């Protein structure tokens, strides 16, 4: 049976919803020529139908009632772009129960409720697609699930939040403090009015939870990912990093240890030779290390109306092709059939190992440095280099140390001990280093 | 009807053929878990069955007769990895006529005979897949055809030949002459014994012909692509480029002018801020500018046994999924159905415009520079900067000029005139500059 037309209903007409509606309307001819069947925007539902979106919808397309869309028997694909995890979850599950394929860009939804949504879609033999949820227009989900199918993925490292990358790039290039960089990011529209999810790393963690599940064939697990944001990064640390040949980026890192995986989000120093070191401004990128491919990297706009909409429409096109050719369950939603999706634990953060950058203010007394290195040595941590950076102020000198590889719990224990010394008036600053 | 097993026959057991055989055998379990059906390597055919490939094939798999593979009714997918365009073409067409899907990594074959092969596959409702033919493991074909489906692609710029990139990187980092860098590339196995296709740019042109067809929805056209290799690049030009803030890369460039396209391969100076400027060694990368996505980039190993094999197996997996779900003609081979594939002409190279780097030796006489700038000025070419680089030798001084944007035919005309001056003993060196 040949399908004559694919009907789309969009829920939520915010930035991305508007972009998807635009693409579906303005690129209708191009899309039909490439997909082989018309993709028809039947409805866009949003509670606010009065604010001008800069599109003139045909009569009856722009409506306020999501229920009309979800319950319309002609709708083939529902595009959930409401955001948040409450209404979005209810609508997504309802749409699947009504036999609609669902496309979303909602990382928070998938990171929090992906397992139940995937299960529902699978039982109903429906597609649930979310390329736009990670890395905007970068085809990272398609790459992991399809292009890297013959690879054991060993690790992934991503700059997955454009707001943070914009802020860090600005501090790096202009030496301005964090607050000023954030303010400009907000003025330019990169950062939300409430930037908490972005700058504290939670948005990156949502995305990492999705990638980690796909890459290693495991259930989605957000809760066990370590998350640390960029709000305490100072121009001084960025400057010091540069002198050591590093850039500071907010990285989402995961590593495959077979029985367990590492998954963590934190500001990270990476060598200038690392391809991610040159990813600047609001751009996103992710390196994926596969056992057959070696390192590959994807780079692109991680957010924004049209880049994100482009990824949403690529999912719509894939599903339209499935509908057209009558293929059901062509691509397992998490990359492997359910019976092969394992519950692989995320390793406790304290068990992970990296090198460390430690910056502290130390009283300018004899013996302080030897005391500090003794504390580190007691935990088996060896120091690669120690530098006095900058001038003495108020009787203290700034000291920067780079350690060899050490375990997080050893560093935490050492730092607690160091912080308790009288000679150390302030809590030391710690930034993890990922060497190649 | 559920397919119980997908049978694969590989033709050609060279480097990539061996890699594909390895992946299919060693990753059989992983692949079955991801694809949902066993992918069985039934045959590997090669005229030479005696040289050890480092794999122990089960009895009866490694044979010398390709006909046995092509004519076996149980074979679902033929993997053509013979190379060259003669036998490979015959076998590919025969396989399609016998109802087999075909996967290849053979860029020369597709660039030269892609149109007829695609037509044959289309008529037989079979898949013809060639992800591995461009950029090794980078999923560039999948990205153009699937991920960027909602985009008008405006331009693509690629480092598509690892041998050339390795050589240019070596000259850049060590200042060694071209011949020495080539020799090392050969010793390390990056360059072929006969490196002509690589270093003279033809391999990149094959790949550009494929990408250009896919991106702009046009028939494959190799003949009209301008091709210039890297054999005349000197350490001096690379050093000069660096002083102006440029890297020299062998770039495959195509631009979409709607009624015509630009497609050219030549050594190119790109600003250090361009993401391709940092792609070093034997790595490949391609930037794609879409009207919705903005710039995206893919990066990865462009050659080598396992990276290329990984891409071949990704095509096998896609086709296996199509067979399994009974989907025919799910994805048009060139991205659009035949009726939408246009015969878009490639613009004559002389009509293209860029900025130019011109290096020449000029007699150290008064008035020479003013004569040269007069010749350029007569063609409407304005000079951005002129520098005397290095010392006077034998009465001549080396002069480097950077022009503003000019048309190729104007430059060629000017240079012919300049070369005919008595004051210019040697043919000037010209390298094109791509500004952002």
Automatic annotation (TrEMBL), chains A, B:
<dbReference type="GO" id="GO:0009086">
    <property type="term" value="P:methionine biosynthetic process"/>
</dbReference>
<keyword id="KW-0521">NADP</keyword>
<comment type="pathway">
    <text>Amino-acid biosynthesis; L-methionine biosynthesis via de novo pathway; L-homoserine from L-aspartate: step 3/3.</text>
</comment>
<keyword id="KW-0791">Threonine biosynthesis</keyword>
<dbReference type="GO" id="GO:0009088">
    <property type="term" value="P:threonine biosynthetic process"/>
</dbReference>
<feature type="binding site">
    <location>
        <begin position="11"/>
        <end position="18"/>
    </location>
    <ligand>
        <name>NADP(+)</name>
    </ligand>
</feature>
<dbReference type="Pfam" id="PF01842">
    <property type="entry name" value="ACT"/>
</dbReference>
<comment type="similarity">
    <text>Belongs to the homoserine dehydrogenase family.</text>
</comment>
<protein>
    <recommendedName>
        <fullName>Homoserine dehydrogenase</fullName>
        <ecNumber>1.1.1.3</ecNumber>
    </recommendedName>
</protein>
<feature type="binding site">
    <location>
        <position position="192"/>
    </location>
    <ligand>
        <name>L-homoserine</name>
    </ligand>
</feature>
<dbReference type="InterPro" id="IPR016204">
    <property type="entry name" value="HDH"/>
</dbReference>
<dbReference type="InterPro" id="IPR036291">
    <property type="entry name" value="NAD(P)-bd_dom_sf"/>
</dbReference>
<dbReference type="InterPro" id="IPR045865">
    <property type="entry name" value="ACT-like_dom_sf"/>
</dbReference>
<dbReference type="GO" id="GO:0004412">
    <property type="term" value="F:homoserine dehydrogenase activity"/>
</dbReference>
<dbReference type="Pfam" id="PF03447">
    <property type="entry name" value="NAD_binding_3"/>
</dbReference>
<dbReference type="InterPro" id="IPR005106">
    <property type="entry name" value="Asp/hSer_DH_NAD-bd"/>
</dbReference>
<feature type="binding site">
    <location>
        <position position="107"/>
    </location>
    <ligand>
        <name>NADPH</name>
    </ligand>
</feature>
<feature type="active site" description="Proton donor">
    <location>
        <position position="207"/>
    </location>
</feature>
<keyword id="KW-0028">Amino-acid biosynthesis</keyword>
<dbReference type="InterPro" id="IPR001342">
    <property type="entry name" value="HDH_cat"/>
</dbReference>
<dbReference type="InterPro" id="IPR019811">
    <property type="entry name" value="HDH_CS"/>
</dbReference>
<keyword id="KW-0560">Oxidoreductase</keyword>
<dbReference type="GO" id="GO:0050661">
    <property type="term" value="F:NADP binding"/>
</dbReference>
<feature type="domain" description="ACT">
    <location>
        <begin position="357"/>
        <end position="434"/>
    </location>
</feature>
<comment type="pathway">
    <text>Amino-acid biosynthesis; L-threonine biosynthesis; L-threonine from L-aspartate: step 3/5.</text>
</comment>
<dbReference type="Pfam" id="PF00742">
    <property type="entry name" value="Homoserine_dh"/>
</dbReference>
<keyword id="KW-0486">Methionine biosynthesis</keyword>
<dbReference type="InterPro" id="IPR002912">
    <property type="entry name" value="ACT_dom"/>
</dbReference>
